[in-house]
Specification:
The protein is of the alpha+beta class. It is built from ten helices and four strands, in the order βαβαββαααααααα. The N and C termini lie far apart (44 Å).
Length: 252
């Protein structure tokens, strides 16, 4: 008897890295179950979750592999590549292996995972979650994120399709979207980057993005970003559990 596939469970929470996987799944039209991970309670550090992702971070995913056995996936870029290699045979959001577009797509996925995500994440930390204001840290990471946004903006200015690669939305676009949609949380004014802003709005209009961005909870970052007092209140709530989690990690 052949393995029942897909048999996907997504372990996630409402973050830019989390929603890139739910958006990928929705764009592919794949059925999946959702296990919400409460990172405010360090659920991601519990033994059962560490068996899925030893690094104790979301997102993570399990599936039944072609051999009928369970497979675990962690790191969002790895999960995206697995999903398109296994299930995007028609290349709805990817390109055939070995093509020029396939390698260009990988360029931008690594650009996000090694650049935009880490830099914007640190900008978020110093601007929103650090226990004290360290202007050097805020300026360093916010400015570097702005530089990376300018790279994207310039690239998109020359894109005939309006997407990062080729003639379609791919996992490279999906990987970036949650971060760019949260630009204001990092102290970045998206209006400075008109081509990137138009791209963000183009993706937001897609049905798969609209469905996937609300997993496992409503995606409210844009609404939050419209009011500075609301942003600060939300940041204060996050600051407490971020600092508590850092203290716990320091003891491991």
């Amino acid at each position: 008897m052949s393995a029942q596939r897909p048999d996907i469970t997504l372990y996630t929470t409402q973050t830019p890295n989390g929603i890139k996987i739910s958006i990928t799944l929705e764009e592919l039209g794949l059925p999946y179950k959702v296990e919400k991970i409460d990172i405010t309670k360090n659920t991601q550090k519990e033994a059962w979750f560490l068996a899925i992702n030893p690094n104790g971070r979301i997102p993570a995913l399990t599936d039944t592999f072609a051999d009928g056995q369970s497979i675990r996936l962690f790191e969002s870029g790895s999960i995206q590549q697995y999903l398109v290699e296994q299930y995007d045979k028609d290349h709805k959001i990817s390109f055939p292996a070995g093509t020029r577009e396939h390698y260009e797509m990988n360029n931008w996925i690594f650009f996000l995972n090694a650049g935009v995500g880490p830099m914007q994440g640190q900008a978020n930390h110093f601007a929103r979650y650090a226990p004290e204001k360290i202007q050097y840290g805020i300026s360093r990471y916010t400015n570097e994120t702005r530089r990376l946004y300018s790279v994207l903006d310039k690239h998109l200015a020359g894109s005939a399709s309006g997407y990062l690669v080729g003639d379609r939305c791919s996992i490279a676009d999906i990987a970036h979207w949650g971060w760019v949609a949260a630009a204001a949380w990092a102290g970045i004014e998206i209006d400075e980057f008109p081509h990137l802003k138009a791209w963000e709005e183009r993706l937001a209009a897609r049905d798969g993005v609209e469905r996937g961005r609300h997993v496992p909870d409503p995606h409210r970052i844009k609404e939050l970003s419209k009011d500075k007092n609301t942003m600060e209140k939300k940041a204060e709530e996050g600051r407490k559990w971020v600092q508590a989690g850092m203290a716990a990690d320091a003891k491991r």
